[in-house]
Amino acid sequence: MPAGIFRLCLVVITAIVNHPHLYPRENGAVPENTEEIIQKMKEREEILRMEQLRLEQEIADQEARQKALEKAAEVVEESKEEKIRWDMWSALSMVVFLLMELWRQDFQEGNWQDIEGEEDDMAVLGKVFKGVAFPDKAVLSSFYEKRILGTTGDMARMREMVEGFADDLLEALRSVCNRDADMEVEDCMGVGSMYENWRVRKPFVCDLIVPFAPPEPYRFRSQTWCSGDSFPPDEQGYGTIKVCRANEDVTGCICDKTKLGEDMLCLLHSQANTTRPSSEMEDLLCFKNTQYLDADQVMKWFQIAVTKAWNRISHKYEFDLSFSLLDSPGALKIKFKSGKSIAFNLTPVVQYENSDVYFISHFPRSCLAADLPSSTHWFLTFAVYERRFIQLVSKTLPANACHVTCLQILSFLHAKQCSLTGPSGLTNYHLKTVMLHLLQARPSQDWMPENLEARLQDMLKFLEKCLHEKKLYHFFIGNGKVPEELGFPIIFQRAEPLNLFRPFVLHRDVYKKTVDTFHEMLRNMSALINEYTVHIPLVHTNGIHKESF
């Protein structure tokens, strides 16, 4: 306690002694020191303020960098999310592509021809023509017997006459040709409606194809749109024919593509075995400066050869022979002194490999026929296989099956309607294709003669459906269900199906005209048929026709 009091007293004394009022004179410089201190304090304050500004700037910069980093992180995160979404879309697109590929394979295997499964759709489409009178079986049978059946004998006699004359003409053609330089002509073959016994409209015209081959040592090498060569979509159904030597490699020898030195020889090709110059290739009916067979050159050669052959044998016949149509170079007409005439087509073709598929130089023109990409492009015809298929299926059908009858009636109705309202995009080949599809889709017993009315309706409904969708597929191309007995080339079975109605997509005016003609034909069906038959009253029920669409 005393120690504490002592310390307190010491502090009080010290404060008194050091109080400024006790030494006023000695502290006269205090004001000046204060101003100096104040000045220093201001300087210090300024320094502190500058330091504060610097620190605030650094903090702001740091915050900006932090925000930039956060934004970059957000962008990276968004890009990751976008990449994930893109990966999902890519995976989804791949799944869709695989599903489409699987569907396409099923499509090629023949599911696209499964007409039985589409009968409901066909029936729905048929309702568009509800109330249109459809002739019953009695009327159809009477019409067939009176208008169509009698033409069968006429076709048989005409075929026999034309075939005999064509054989004689081709034999004379061979005799006037140079066997060492000209094309070698083979025997002709009959194809089409006249040889499938369903042509009904006059004048009757026989279609004959004449295969030919190049002289030795040359051969034809064919390329088609489905053989791996590049053909654009508008050239599907076409091919090219290259003229090459029999011992020439498919890919060609390197000596044709590389300049060898004067002192170098190709061990595969001797000097005597070199390729003919361009002028001689043109003698082989090739397009100028190419090795590709020219359809126009072939037809010119064939017309000249036929003219020479006719001049040699004309004295044996009491009629004249002439070329009749400009747009069909192989069209010939026999004119008798009585004024009657017989027309037939004699068209040169090239065999595709070892099959009965042929490259044909020219087809008869139609509204849908497009111009060939060039004269070196040849269309493929499957007419021989079509005839064989009909013959093969006919063996499994009941006696007097109605498939040919249906096609004949439909062909007659369409031709009659076109004679009234003008041509349409439909051809007899389209109608035959419809019948081929139905022949393959329906069981044999469905084609009994008493089912004529139902099968004719099936053909009309199927044709209506194809017109509605603008899709009618070639019967053989892409059809995996072709009977093996036909020996049909597998390359065409595995090809993409060929849509015969594709031109309708490109030519809308022709499509509209075709649909209008088809509708008008349905409405006029009874009138067109009754015009050629004795009147057989239709069966009525409550004022409604027995059968109608």
What does this protein structure show overall?
This protein has 549 residues and is an alpha+beta fold. Among the domains are: 121-150 and 397-535, Poly(a)-polymerase, middle domain (Orthogonal Bundle), CATH 1.10.1410.40; 152-247 and 280-382, Beta Polymerase, domain 2. It has 16 helices and 12 strands. It has helices at residues 2-17, 30-108, 119-126, 137-148, 151-176, 193-196, 278-283, 295-313, 383-394, 403-421, 428-441, 452-469, 490-493, 502-506, 508-523, 525-530; strands at 184-185, 189-191, 205-213, 218-224, 238-245, 319-323, 331-336, 341-351, 358-360, 378-381, 540-541, 544-545. The strands form 2 sheets. Strands 1, 2, 3, 4, 5, 6, 7, 8, 9 and 10 form a 10-stranded mixed sheet that branches. It has a two-stranded antiparallel sheet with strand order 11-12. The radius of gyration is 46 Å and the shape is elongated. The chain starts with a helix and ends with a strand.
Average per-residue pLDDT, rounded, comes to: 79
End-to-end Cα distance, whole Å, is 132 Å
3D shape? elongated
Q: What is the CATH topology of the domain at 152-247 and 280-382?
A: Beta Polymerase, domain 2
CATH class of the domain at 152-247 and 280-382: Alpha Beta
Regions with little confidence, pLDDT below 50 for 5+ residues: 22-31, 107-125, 256-260, 267-278, 535-549
Give the topology string: H per helix, E per strand. HHHHHEEHEEEHHEEEEEHHHHHHHHEE
The profile of the biggest β sheet is: 10 strands, mixed
